[in-house]
């Protein structure tokens, strides 16, 4: 496991855009169908925008029709942390970057086989590194 990234709120604010900070550090959610990666199908690897940890591969991305980039499996299970989220009068499973504890989105059990999972992730929490070729 990679070393934890710990920064002060001032350091996070200086590094991230206000929108990225709101999502990753304050657990905000971008509007559905508004994110830059929602309909991007380029080959590559999605990394945490805050710390750079590899989170998802483009091969696991699918169109769930929910308005956010969706993935069926993490690139490395150790890169993802999960916590119970009871906000907004719902019970959900929040997905966090295991390295810097940035809020990424939520995971649901209505995804495609073989995992049956749908990682519903905010574009603002991601940075795509495209593969050449």
Automatic annotation (TrEMBL):
MsrB domain location: 9-131
Domain of life: Bacteria
GO MF: peptide-methionine (R)-S-oxide reductase activity; zinc ion binding
Cofactor: Zn(2+)
Reaction equation(s) it catalyzes: L-methionyl-[protein] + [thioredoxin]-disulfide + H2O = L-methionyl-(R)-S-oxide-[protein] + [thioredoxin]-dithiol
Annotated NCBIfam families: peptide-methionine (R)-S-oxide reductase MsrB
Family the entry assigns: Belongs to the MsrB Met sulfoxide reductase family.
Protein's name in the database: Peptide methionine sulfoxide reductase MsrB
Species: Paramagnetospirillum kuznetsovii
Gene: msrB
